[in-house]
Amino acid sequence: MKLSIGIYKKSLAFWIVVGLIFGATALLLRRNSQQISASSELPQEVTLPGAFSGTVVIARSGAVTFQGKPVKGTLKTHKDFDEFQLKIFDEPGVSFGQARVDVVLPFSVSEPSIKITPYLIHSFDSQVGVQKIAPSTIEFTATNIAPEAVFTVNVQFGKGLIAYPWLTRIAQFFSTISFGSWIVLSLVLPVPTLLYVLYLLYRQSRVSIAPSAAAVISSPPQDLPPAVVGVLKHGSVSARDIGATLVDLARRGFIDIFWRESGFSFGKRRDFHFYSLAEMNISPTIRRAKTQGLRGYEEVLLSKILPPEGYRSTDDDIVVRVGHRLFSPKMAEVFTQIYSIATAHGFFVKNPAAVHRTIRRRGIALFVAGVIGFAVSGILGPDPKFFLIFWVGMIAASLLIIDLSNLVPLRTPHGTKVLGDWLAFERYLTDRKEISYSEITAGVFERYLPYAIALGVEGAWTYRFRRHPFAPPPWFGTTTNNISLEQFDRELFPLLGWVAQSLVAAKEPTVE
Question: In this model, does residue 266 exceed pLDDT 50?
Fold first, then answer.
């Protein structure tokens, strides 16, 4: 079998756009900022012992050149002053008899705020000097420079003497904020986000579940698909709902599930045709797929795990069918249709899929902005990089939004009333009292098993049959002889969990 890997076009386009934004932002910052970059090495005009001379020009815009070549990372800003510092020699490895560097400023040397300091270390019997040779030019000199010497020129001057580009001014402003202030700013996004989510949870908890007329209901209160019941209880589609749907399809005679120690397989029990999403033109309302007795999302789900031709799909086949795309539009359609059915019944104020999609997209956009900001600031930003804490806070807030987006949809009063009835039925499923043998022969275990899975109580439901003879459902095959109820649980539920989790993981990230 040849394995082909496809990429969902929207996902590919999304990451291409992210890459273009990142590259354009980095290029823009490099072109417009003079110190939002790592220090460049000083161009070396002289490599032989003797005399060294050069000229540094500082432009009004903050651009610095040495011998006509740009030098970055030499201008730094502080709270009360700006500073120019340039290493002329950093252990050059050879001796110099003398060195002269002229620094041309964009303002007069007579400015009262100017402080001029040369530094020469690791060099004995040396002398350094500073003098004004023009209204805006300072001459730095040094003699007897040793091979291991470090010669640095430093000029400090008042704020406002250099008109930095606007991006540089923004970076300068942020660089003057203290570490403690950045800690506070980093909480500006995550804390309100967390409070908002907690508020939504509080609102959800305030919507009281209407008590049922009976404490326990011994049959499903409505003819609803198991997946919709799971959404009604939990607020979002989960792997449980997918697993419950597969068991319900098996119970209704569409598929067989066969377990063996080396793996498992799904088989068709009926000869039905799969339509593509375009062919089906799926309606978001409750419907049956063509005339096959399948709901729309059920047909889409089956087309994801079963081949269009043939009658059997092994666990290896499912791995290929689930993993041949980066994201699966079919699984996104399954989620969307389940949400649409729940909304059409009036259980939710607004379609949960639309709410999840809007909030997750905002969270993803915030995450991308945080990652780009962190990367660009980390690479090009001035020291100290306290402002990176802000981007960490933004990323944390975005992850919080993405992770908790499924908590937002609120049930309607009708939805809470219906949920109360289903919770009364759940109490029947979890009752510790054993089920009588006559009910077993009536097939109640198999009939209610999908609902038990969707409600998350399949273990308690099977426990009610623990002391009675057990015959596996006709749709479940196994290599185990004389299978017991406990063995049935150990074989069916893990394979359902694996398949359902794999299918859920394949959906598009904009659907929760």
Answer: yes
Total count of domains within the chain: 2
Question: Going by C-beta distance under 8 Å and a sequence separation of 6 or more, which residues neighbour residue 280?
Answer: 289, 290, 296, 299, 300
Q: Which residues pair with 36 in a beta bridge?
A: none
Q: Assess contact for 295 and 225: CB atoms under 8 A.
A: yes
Residue 39 lies in a domain: no
pLDDT at 7: 40
126 and 216 share one domain: no
Which 3 state secondary structure label does DSSP give 403?
helix
**370 neighbors 21 (Cβ within 8 angstroms):** no
The reported pLDDT for the residue numbered 291 is 46
Is the domain of 130 the same as that of 277?
Answer: no
Q: Give the angle 405-394-363 at the CA atoms, nearest 5°.
A: 25
| Cα–Cα dist 430/5, whole Å | 44
Q: How far apart are the C-alpha atoms of 87 and 83, rounded to whole Å?
A: 13
Tokens read off for 471: 């015959």
Answer whether residue 185 is part of any domain. Answer: no
Same domain assignment for residues 211 and 155 = no
Same domain, yes or no: 345 and 455: yes
DSSP for 488-505, written as a single string: HHHHHHHHHHHHHHHHHH
Q: Are 394 and 193 in contact (CB under 8 A)?
A: no
One domain, residues 159 and 211:
no
Q: For residue 433, how many C-alpha atoms fall within 13 Å in the half-sphere facing its CB?
A: 6
Condensed to tens digits (0 to 9), the pLDDT of residues 116-161 reads 989 888 888 788 889 998 889 999 999 888 889 999 999 999 888 8
Parent domain of 157: 50-164
Cα distance from N-terminal residue to C-terminal residue, the chain: 32
pTM beyond 0.70: no
Q: Which of 103, 129, 164 is the last residue of a domain?
A: 164
* Spatial separation of the C-alpha atoms in residues 78 and 159, rounded to whole Å: 9
Contacts of 67 (CB under 8 A, 6+ apart): 43, 45, 54, 55
Question: Which string of b and e fits 468-494 if b means at least 16 CB within 10 Å?
Answer: eebebbebbbbeeeebebeebeebbbe
**Which helix H or strand E contains 143, and what residues bound it?**
strand 137-145
Q: In whole angstroms, what separates CA 10 from the centre of its chain?
A: 16
Alpha-carbon distance values, 193 to 190, 391, 397, 400 (Å) = 5, 15, 6, 7
Do 117 and 219 sit in the same domain of this protein? no
The candidate with the shortest Cα–Cα distance to 360, out of 400, 331, 329, 319, is 400
Structure confidence at residue 60 as a pLDDT band (50, 70, 90): confident
Separation of alpha carbons 153 and 155, rounded Å: 7
> Average pLDDT, stretch 198-212?
61
Q: How does pLDDT run across 336-379, given as a tens digit for each residue? A: 899 999 999 999 888 877 777 777 777 888 888 888 877 776 66
